[in-house]
Amino acid sequence: MTAQAAQDIKAIMQDLGTQAKAASLVLSIAPTEQKNNALLKAADLLRKNAPLIKDANAKDMAAGEQKGLSGSMLDRLMLDDARIEAMAKGLEDIAKLDDPVGDIISEWDRPNGLEIQRVRVPLGVIGIIYESRPNVTADAGALSLKSGNVAILRGGSESFYSSHAIMDCLTTALEEVGLPKTCIQMIPTTDRAAVGEMLTMSDTIDVIVPRGGKGLIERITRESKIPLFKHLDGICHIYVDEKADLEKARKVVVNGKMRRTGICGATETLLVHENVDMSPIINDLIDAGCEIRGDAAAQKVDARIQPASEEDWGTEYLDAIISVKVVSGVNEAVNHINTYGSHHTDCIITEDMNVAESFLNQVDSAICVLNASTQFADGGEFGMGAEIGISTGKMHARGPVGVEQLTSFKYKVRGDGHCRP
Amino acid sequence: MTAQAAQDIKAIMQDLGTQAKAASLVLSIAPTEQKNNALLKAADLLRKNAPLIKDANAKDMAAGEQKGLSGSMLDRLMLDDARIEAMAKGLEDIAKLDDPVGDIISEWDRPNGLEIQRVRVPLGVIGIIYESRPNVTADAGALSLKSGNVAILRGGSESFYSSHAIMDCLTTALEEVGLPKTCIQMIPTTDRAAVGEMLTMSDTIDVIVPRGGKGLIERITRESKIPLFKHLDGICHIYVDEKADLEKARKVVVNGKMRRTGICGATETLLVHENVDMSPIINDLIDAGCEIRGDAAAQKVDARIQPASEEDWGTEYLDAIISVKVVSGVNEAVNHINTYGSHHTDCIITEDMNVAESFLNQVDSAICVLNASTQFADGGEFGMGAEIGISTGKMHARGPVGVEQLTSFKYKVRGDGHCRP
Description:
Two copies of one chain form a homodimer. Chain A is α/β, with parallel strands linked by helices. In chain A, about 40% of the residues lie in helices and about 20% in strands. In chain A, helix 14 (about 355-360) links the parallel strand 12 (about 345-350) and strand 13. At the A-B interface, helix 10, helix 14, strand 13 and strand 16 of A face helix 10, helix 14, strand 13 and strand 16 of B.
């Protein structure tokens, strides 16, 4: 890139940030009805403009095929009438969610008569960096809007035309209800330098949500001067305790691992108490098509278990593979999880409620589960309506990040001429 | 510094971080009583060891005088019986606070029967970097302990001996109640490279609280790979509206500016509605010894008002100086505050509740105040008991950072063999 081109990108991004910050002051106090109307209008426009969106998508698909994108990448990129309808329905669902902005989180009076309220406010400006899934343009833009935040979107270059066609629906809807169209902005270049610039803009962007593969997240973590809501890995565990109900364990392990192997809430490691006969679980997993890698003790159970290496305990397979380790009890299980896990979602199967509490309290993960599949790690399953991602960090948001987690708060203090003694 | 010395500091810091992380797993589930007992024992030890602490402080004071520290720095460094008693009393007050850890923030059941709880947990490990105020060693260590967080303290080099004498009381108390003494650690070197290393340790430190002058905060902001709870400036405003009660305005402005001029909640800029006769307020301020710098309109009111430059609107004087600007109404006041302010604490004086709400909603600051002094910006005044600092950021903590803001949360999800369909 020439120095001139780098300057241009810096100028484009700075301008985008300034406009976003200005729009955020308007959007932060926009009435719920105005925001909901924008969402409903955008849903209508998606339906009305479906032919245009499919045309734009056809361009992306043709370029993607020429570029040699994998089948699964092309599948994520593809839009048809059903997927456009799902996006439109998603916007309507977000319109139905409670508006968190303005909620009084708590309030109290001081002995001197000062009245203090803690009131929910938007974070401000959210940057969302994602790969070539055009539907994220609608979802992330809508969740930001509902929570009163301006969104700066950076989609994958392969979905450039599709994302822009969707963006047109969003910005037209914003203008139709009288909100600045800069409330949802898309970076107008596919140059990767724009992301680098974005990550420095801590004056105008309050938080960045990176969604995508580990390489992308690692790069963003390394470079960003802005806080992130992110998870790098989902190395989720199920510990089958001595007091487990074996029938529940069999069902939950197979579901945790095999329901969908490619999601961050999929189970990657099975820990089994040394007094539990794990063969039925192993049989179920193998019957379901799962490869098993175990430690020495696990390997004794079934000849089909391959040896696990140290590296396996820290691997997110995202595939039909599971690592298995025999442990002496809940404490060893907790230690293993806190050492090798990724603080995402971890589960214990037990009927002993004391052991369960010990596990739920000691495991240092966003979501600690008793007797249920790790695949419930999802904003929708939690009843949050929709999520912009899952955070394994402890700052601000943790677990599924829904509209409420996209807010901050301020204090309103009301007095009557109070002076501090 | 030699390469060997740099290696040594890196090793020392990494070891300290590893120990802190290990201790945090113990401390995060320590019962409230055990933590409170440690605080009470530490308070006893501070009183019992007052002679030792004063001896250590005498060394620091002698070195400080030789180094030519200013009178105010020496005053902050100095410990006497009254100040040691105040520290001990501070620990006892923190012991009396409610323990936030384990609080169920919210809970709900899903239609499928899953029970979801959002439960408060400690953040983990908190790094506190502060200047030469030995009492911060006790306060910050105690607030961290109460909230279940391990503290890594880095005090100013001038208070080295005093801080270590206080640390001895804290760590002895930890051991006496059966908690790891590594729950509160002090960096054992005054080498500044240790701070640089600390700011990279995002694997073991969850948040850093920098307390001190603007230069220190700026350096830490630039270098840190770890989230910060911080405020850079406290450029606080009072807007006197057209519908202000002038008697309240006079009292509140003088208190906001002059009660203590050196704190972050002190008022730095006065905005006055063009229809308000500000002369009584100006007279009060000048009578109280305040220098006044005004825009052209303000200067017409009183010949003693000096001209304000553009720079004045963004200056935190921390002194008996105030800038004054005439505005056309609440919107111009809000715009000025959101442009030049520091998102700390800003106040409106008015009897018109519509204008008041408009101000409280639109000003993008941690603390928005109606008819009361900006100097109430303080955890103690808010009824939080004690604060580790004030945050002007919107992520996680905002405003006074008390024990509750030093916590995160986790989800506990309880099922009965639930599998995700």
